[in-house]
């Protein structure tokens, strides 16, 4: 019988996935095994996801970033979803969530799984609602059927909103923005229509049996997350969190890997307290936060309002950040929005890793600063979080090859370039022997993580774009080495 990473870690076994994760994070495999065994880290790796390059999510490892993709009723093209997958991984997504609600859902998901080197997450209740045709028509059997089918297909983690209970619903009455989670609002409508408890809560043990069989990590959804800073940290949010703590223990006891989802919209001064409360209630299970947005006033710029909250959350111990794009609250993101959202979140994740002293994280900063001071423009571009953008912006005003050795750029101009003036002055004083020590990133403890140009990814595993037309729907890459006993 197959066992999960959690069960194998508890048995003292170091799996191939743990070895690979340790290599990517530059850590000891035993450190990874212990964190997984203690429930403080997860390795979402469904046995059937053959293209996966395993990664780890936990507060003691590099902060990860998720990007949402997925088709809607208005835009449901499988090839388009593969293009979104490519864009997301190219710009540094550590995981993707397929939130499709329209089109041939199983076909789109299968295609994404065939090509994705990063873990793929879903929210099964979306597909269940499309099949039931209305929230009220959902049944427990249908929910279990969809979860089973997606698990068999190879989904690595699933958001299950089992923590929204009937008794929590009145606590949302005084809110400005009510219930803003899609899953939470669907389940609230179902409970009110039927006068019965949340079916995902009632059937949670059966759900865990399915997840355990395929080693699907459960991501406990926060259906009552606040949708505005006014609603943050209220009774409804924290009542649900208590239930998520109970469910964390139940799922882990069943051998299922667990992470817990968090808010949403939270004023900056409450973010750290939210993270600390989750870690206490859920016994250190990895916290996966959406933002949070720290103000509600900036539609069109919510990748910025939320990246501020995400930085603070990661600094306080959140393990994974779900990106937000500039289109949040306004419309479906396009490729440029995905790029901007991922850049904002990779900055948030890296800034927190630097501040938290993650081994080697700052080497990247030091290498880029050194290249900058030495006017090594090409190396500066190569090291940039988004090399294409850095090169483009520089070349908009100084495009020629001769400017790649210039001791200035167009920002201050040759006369007022402070770094040139400083270097000339130091050389004149005889003080300057060397501008900076060359940083050898290959020798850095972060050699395989935080590594430009695509974060924690092995660039050779980037899904090809455009895909081979024959292979597009059925392709496969190397296995994840997790064929179990
Ligand atoms: S001109 Fe200004 S911005 Fe450009 S390299 Fe010199 S100091 Fe930096």
From TrEMBL:
Give one GO term, molecular function aspect. Answer: phosphomethylpyrimidine synthase activity
Chain positions recorded as Zn(2+) binding sites: 265, 329
Biological process per Gene Ontology, one example term: thiamine diphosphate biosynthetic process
Residue positions annotated to bind [4Fe-4S] cluster are: 409, 412, 417
Q: Where is this region: Disordered?
A: 1-30, 437-485
List positions binding substrate. 68, 97, 126, 161, 181-183, 222-225, 261, 288
Catalytic EC class: lyase
Its recorded reaction(s) are: 5-amino-1-(5-phospho-beta-D-ribosyl)imidazole + S-adenosyl-L-methionine = 4-amino-2-methyl-5-(phosphooxymethyl)pyrimidine + CO + 5'-deoxyadenosine + formate + L-methionine + 3 H(+)
Pathway the protein takes part in: Cofactor biosynthesis; thiamine diphosphate biosynthesis
The record's function comment reads: Catalyzes the synthesis of the hydroxymethylpyrimidine phosphate (HMP-P) moiety of thiamine from aminoimidazole ribotide (AIR) in a radical S-adenosyl-L-methionine (SAM)-dependent reaction.
For this protein, the record's NCBIfam families field holds: PRK13352.1 (NF009895), thiC (TIGR00190)
Q: What is this protein called?
A: Phosphomethylpyrimidine synthase
State the organism of origin.
Halobaculum saliterrae
The gene it comes from is thiC
